Amino acid sequence: MEVSVREHAVFQRDGNDLYCEVPVRFSQAALGADIIVPTLGGEALIKVPLETQTGKLFRLRGKGVKSVRAHAPGDLLCRVVVETPVNLTARQRELLKDFEATFDGEHGARHSPRSSGLWTASRRSGTG
Questions:
Q1: Sheet containing 76-83: order of strands
Q2: Is residue 120 scored above 80 in pLDDT?
Q3: Cα 73 to Cα 44: distance, rounded to the nearest angstrom
Q4: Extents of the domains making up the chain
């Protein structure tokens, strides 16, 4: 007997584990937030900690697929994707400009872990 598994709109399967991407707003990632995520059995809560970066994986044990051969279900792994806001109001744009102005000079690099590493690696290789 052969079983065919269709693709799902939200989840990708790897064995008994499921993967999904969880979009979060910039402010939620920076300040921390409780996020509701879908599971096969309904919904679950993820506590996104302060200063979470895109790509962070959260494991929800036992929220994956239960195999007919295995006793325990797999896990659900949720990858955070920080979304850039769109359709901003004039007030939101102004607030973001004010916020961006606080990152002037060398002090701004310490708040951007990935981009500061990019420039450091570039300087070491002699390309920057």
A1: 12-14, 17-25, 76-83, 57-60
A2: no
A3: 16
A4: 1-84, 88-122
CA 69, distance to chain mean position in Å, is 32
For 32-86, the pLDDT digits (tens) are 999 999 998 899 999 999 999 999 999 999 999 887 777 789 999 999 999 999 9
Q: Give the H or E element holding residue 95.
A: helix 90-101
Q: Are strands 76-83 and 17-25 parallel, antiparallel or unpaired?
A: parallel
Please check whether residue 60 is in contact with residue 53, taking contact to mean a CB–CB distance below 8 angstroms.
no
Residue 42 dihedral angles phi and psi, to the nearest 5°: 140, -120
Distance CA 18, CA 67 (A): 12
Q: What is the CATH number of domain 1-84?
A: 2.60.260.20
15: left (phi over 0), alpha (psi -120 to 50) or beta: left
Provide φ and ψ at 69, rounded to 5°.
-95, -25
Over range 114-120, report the average pLDDT. Answer: 57
pLDDT of residue 55: 96
